[in-house]
């Protein structure tokens, strides 16, 4: 092991011109690997030479290997020349487009583990890589976590090559670049950085590449691990990245000048940089009329505020600022709490934790019952708690409304941050009343104002509406008519901000209303 690898698990074995030595090296590297297939052949008639084929079982197309590559080698290489046998095999014996020379043992091992077939020739310190991958995958699935009423139903899959195709099919532009690199000394996970050249900011690309290469890690198994590795606001609950499983949403982000990172074996991609406003934009907002999209966005912002504010506001008003309520409402609240042995704060904590446990159990429960467990279980437990005088009906309403409004935010990591902040607001409200509630909201806004995502202020365009003459607010909390959205957001390069222009000589109604 020590002769073949260094202390960082990098392969140090050298390529030899002796086929037997190379076979011994590869056999040692793949020792006790039952899924690795190795076979030695002799081809070439009178001037025959030995070749060695190695691949991983069930990661290649065996029919293609046998009927194409092997059949050609034995059928077409009957008269092998005495010299330049490697070039002869390469040009005459293997008739395939994806044929690449590899020159190191480390490259050979990497290609084998990626699902390629390697052919070594005796007398040469180089090999041939033949691509005939056929890995198990579930094709193009349907989006389950980001459901939309209108638009594509496709979702990213675990296969990187499928995800690349899904983006290429939507953006047919040679400027769509996909830089591929490997991360993880043991997993060697393929990672693709996708962007529109000229539209994405070079400084953002440089920062992303720097962070991806900043650490040496043994393995990356999902995009979530890569997100945590590259983030800078480690102790903030708010993500500095946006994740999505929808190809149309990722393609729209690329067109806006953002960068999408694909990770092999992960159906969720990373979108960078991001802002607070981006998390409230659903994928089908662009497919619906501006009035509907604006109304739904306002609902999401209201829902996000309610999910962090309702429990704290309820506790603050009832414990410290009951004079804000009308006499009729005060009497109603007092009657509802009659017989309840706990304080308002304890009531809220009991129901809040119970609902969160039900939601988590619903996610983890297998089968179709999981989705209904949170709602049905909450109703049953809430009704039983009210009948037993453990909590008041008002608290059940507050917590249920709080849980429902959390789902109006169309991004799960961002919604989870609001669930955490809710307890911070609740604690301040419980100790300081309405004054503590205001302090909590103010601290939250200050914290959001100080965050950045790969150089982009988190509160753009709200806290920086003067930038670009405020035109970025046309697709923020409100969504202007589609023809008004002529410029890309601040994610894009300065020279590529314009995305919509009117054709010269084109006839169009309501020209006088155009900006």
UniProtKB/TrEMBL annotation:
The keyword Transmembrane helix applies. InterPro entries: Spore_Ger, UPF0353/GerABKA_families. One of its GO terms (cellular component) is membrane. Residues 496-508 have a biased composition (Basic and acidic residues). Residues 496-515 are annotated as: Disordered. Pfam families: GerA. It comes from the Bacteria. Keywords: Membrane, Transmembrane, Transmembrane helix. GO terms for biological process: spore germination. The chain crosses the membrane at residues 298-320, 366-384, 390-409, 421-448. The keyword Signal does not apply. Belongs to the GerABKA family. This is Spore germination protein. It comes from Anaerocolumna xylanovorans DSM 12503.
């Amino acid at each position: 092991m020590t002769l073949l690898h260094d202390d960082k698990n990098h392969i140090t074995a050298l390529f030899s011109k002796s086929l037997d030595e190379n076979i011994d090296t590869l056999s040692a590297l793949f020792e006790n690997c039952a899924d690795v297939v190795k076979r030695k052949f002799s081809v070439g008639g009178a001037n025959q030479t030995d070749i060695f084929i190695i691949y991983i079982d069930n990661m290649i197309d065996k029919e293609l290997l046998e009927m194409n590559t092997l059949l050609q080698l034995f059928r077409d290489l009957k008269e092998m020349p005495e010299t330049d046998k490697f070039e002869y095999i390469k040009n005459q014996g293997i008739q395939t487009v994806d044929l690449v020379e590899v020159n190191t043992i480390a490259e050979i091992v990497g290609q084998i583990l990626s699902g390629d077939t390697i052919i070594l020739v005796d007398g040469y310190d180089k090999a041939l890589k033949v691509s005939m991958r056929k890995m198990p995958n579930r094709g193009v699935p349907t989006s389950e976590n980001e459901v939309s009423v209108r638009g594509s139903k496709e979702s990213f899959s675990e296969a990187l090559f499928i995800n690349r195709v899904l983006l290429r099919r939507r953006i047919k532009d040679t400027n769509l670049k996909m830089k591929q690199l490997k991360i993880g000394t043991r997993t060697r996970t393929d990672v693709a950085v996708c962007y529109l050249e000229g539209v994405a900011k070079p400084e953002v690309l440089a920062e992303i590449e720097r962070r991806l290469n900043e650490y040496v890690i043994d393995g990356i198994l999902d995009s979530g691990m890569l997100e945590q590795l590259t983030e800078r606001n480690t102790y903030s609950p708010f993500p500095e990245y946006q994740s999505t499983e929808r190809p149309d949403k990722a393609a729209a982000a690329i067109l806006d000048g953002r960068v999408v990172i694909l990770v092999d074996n992960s159906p969720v991609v990373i979108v960078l940089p991001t802002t607070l406003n981006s998390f409230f934009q659903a994928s089908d907002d662009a497919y619906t009329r501006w009035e509907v999209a604006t109304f739904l966005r306002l609902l999401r912002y209201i829902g996000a505020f309610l999910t962090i504010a309702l429990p704290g506001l309820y506790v603050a008003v009832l414990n410290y600022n009951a004079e804000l309520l009308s006499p009729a409402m005060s009497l109603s609240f007092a009657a509802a709490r009659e017989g309840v042995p706990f304080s308002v704060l304890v009531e809220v904590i009991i129901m809040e934790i119970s609902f969160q446990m039900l939601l988590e159990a619903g996610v983890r429960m297998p089968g179709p019952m999981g989705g209904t467990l949170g709602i049905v279980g909450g109703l049953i437990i809430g009704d039983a708690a009210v009948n037993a005088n453990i909590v008041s009906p008002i608290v059940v309403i507050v917590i249920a409304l709080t849980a429902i409004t959390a789902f109006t935010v169309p991004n799960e990591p961002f919604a989870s941050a609001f669930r955490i902040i809710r307890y911070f607001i609740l604690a301040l409200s419980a100790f300081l009343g309405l004054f503590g509630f205001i302090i909590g909201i103010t601290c939250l806004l200050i914290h959001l104002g100080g965050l950045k995502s790969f150089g982009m202020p988190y509160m753009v365009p709200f806290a920086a509406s003067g930038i670009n003459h405020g035109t970025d607010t046309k697709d923020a909390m409100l969504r202007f008519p589609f023809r008004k959205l002529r410029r890309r957001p601040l994610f894009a390069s300065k020279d590529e901000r314009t995305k919509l222009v009117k054709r010269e000589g084109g006839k169009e109604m309501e020209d006088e209303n155009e900006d």
